[in-house]
Amino acid sequence: MTQEKVVAPAPELTLVEPYSSYQEVNTGSESAVIHLDDYRQPGLPGEAYTSAQHLEQERQAIFSRYWVCVGLASDLPHPGDVYPTDVAGMPIVLVRDRAGQLGAFHNICSHRGLQLVEQPCHVQAHLRCPYHSWTYKLDGSLKNTPHFGGYYKDSYEGFDRDKRGLQPIRCDQWLDLIFVNLSGDAPPLAEYLQPVRDRWSMYDLSLLRHEPREVSLQCNANWKLAVENFSESYHLSWVHPALNSCSRMEDHFAFEVGDVHVGQGSLLYKSGEIEGRSLPCLPDLAAHQKATVAEYITVFPNLMLGVHPDYFLAFTVNPLSPTQTQERLAFYFMGDEAMTPENQALRNLPIDLWRDTNDEDIAMIERLQAGRNSPRFDGGCFSPELEQPVYRFQQMVARAIGELPP
Ligand code: FES
Ligand SMILES: [Fe+2]
Known about the structure:
- By secondary structure, the protein is of the alpha+beta class.
- The chain folds into two domains: 17-46 and 202-402, Alpha-Beta Complex (Naphthalene 1,2-dioxygenase Alpha Subunit, Chain A, domain 1); 68-181, Rieske [2Fe-2S] iron-sulphur domain (Rieske Iron-sulfur Protein, 3-layer Sandwich), CATH 2.102.10.
- It has helices spanning 22-25, 47-50, 52-63, 189-192, 194-199, 223-230, 236-239, 241-246, 344-371, 388-402; strands spanning 68-72, 81-87, 90-96, 102-106, 121-122, 126-128, 135-137, 142-144, 168-174, 177-181, 208-210, 215-219, 252-257, 261-266, 294-299, 303-307, 311-321, 324-334.
- Strands 11, 12, 13, 14, 15, 16, 17 and 18 form an eight-stranded antiparallel β-sheet that branches. A seven-stranded antiparallel β-sheet has the order 1-10-9-4-3-2-5, with no helix packed on it. A three-stranded antiparallel β-sheet has the order 6-7-8, with no helix packed on it.
- A hairpin with a 3-residue loop joins strand 16 (303-307) and strand 17 (311-321).
- The N and C termini lie far apart (50 Å).
- The model is unreliable at 1-36 (pLDDT under 50).
- The structure holds FE2/S2 (inorganic) cluster and fe (ii) ion.
- Residues 109, 111-112, 114, 129, 131-132, 134 line the site of FE2/S2 (inorganic) cluster.
- The site of fe (ii) ion has 6 residues, from helix 9.
C-alpha cells in the first residue's frame, strides 16, 4: 500500500494584486479581499461565481489561454465527421479530414458570421453555410462563394478567397481527449500534461476503450464549484454516505501534480462485482502498489480525470453562464474484453455510481451557488489538511485573471 505524502500546507503561490478590486464589489470589509497567504484565509469572493463580467474575464484569461478539453476523439471517429461545441460560450467546430487528421476552427462562416455547423454530422468533403451557400474544405479553406460578385459571378476583383477561410484553432489530443488553445501560444499540450503523464506512467492507458454510455447534465452553479467539489474529499462522509462506506474520507490522500494541476486519491478502491465476476483491470497494479488505489487529477481549468484499476473517468465542465454549467462524464474500460455485451452490467456499476454520486454533489454545489449571492459571503476558508486542492485551483483562477491587462 502506498503511503502518499500529503501536500504541505505552506502555499507556493502568492495571490496577485488585481483581486483587490473585489474590495469594491464584495462586502467592503478588508477580510473580503483575497490575500490567500494561508489556507485559512478567504477564497474567491461571491462575485467570482455570479457576475457576467467575471465570466468574461475567465473567457479571456483562462478559457482562451490554457489548453481546454472540448471533446473526445470518439465524438468524431471517422473521416468527414464534424462536431460543433463551444469553449465557455465561444463556438468552435472539430473536424476530422479525409486523411483522418483532427482540426478545430472557430465555428463561424467568414461571410457574415453565421454559426456554420449546428449539429454533429458527417460530410463528404465540404462544409456548406446554409445562409448564402459558401462552402469550405475540411482544411478550412474557402472553396465556393456563389454569386458573391453579382449574379453568376462568384468573385470580384480584389476579393481574396485565401483570406476568408475558416479561422483555425490550435488543437491537440491526449488519449481520447481533444484540447484546444484559442490563443495559440500556450506551451505544447504534452508539456502541459507532463506532470499528469508522469504521475500515471505506470498505467498502460493504451488499454482504454471508450464506453458509449455517458452522463451528461446541466446544473445551476458556476463551473468552478463543480471543479472545486471534485477536488476535495472532505465532504464525502456527509454527502455520499454510500460511497463513504466503501471508501472512507480518511482513506483519501492528496498529492502534487506539478504546480498547476492538483491530485487526490483513495487507498481502498474495490472493483464492482456481479455474481463473482468483475471487469478486467490494468496490468501490473500490484507491483506498483496500485491494486486498490484510485487517483483523481484536476487538470486546470476544466478537466477532471480518475484512474481506477478497472476504469478511467474523464469529467469535463463548460460554463453556459455565470450560474449554469454543462457537465459531461465519459468512461473508459480496460481492453477489448471489458467491452463485450456480457460485461455491460458490470460497466454500468461505476457509471451508475458516478451518476448518483454526482447528483448528490450537484445538490450541494447548487447551494454553494445560492450562498454566493449573500452580501456576507467573505470567500470562506480552507482546511489546511483537506482542501489544499481547492485553494490551489482558486489561486490559479485568481492568478490567471490577474495577468489580464487592466
Ligand atoms: S453567412 Fe455564410 S454564406 Fe453568408
Ligand atoms: Fe462529491
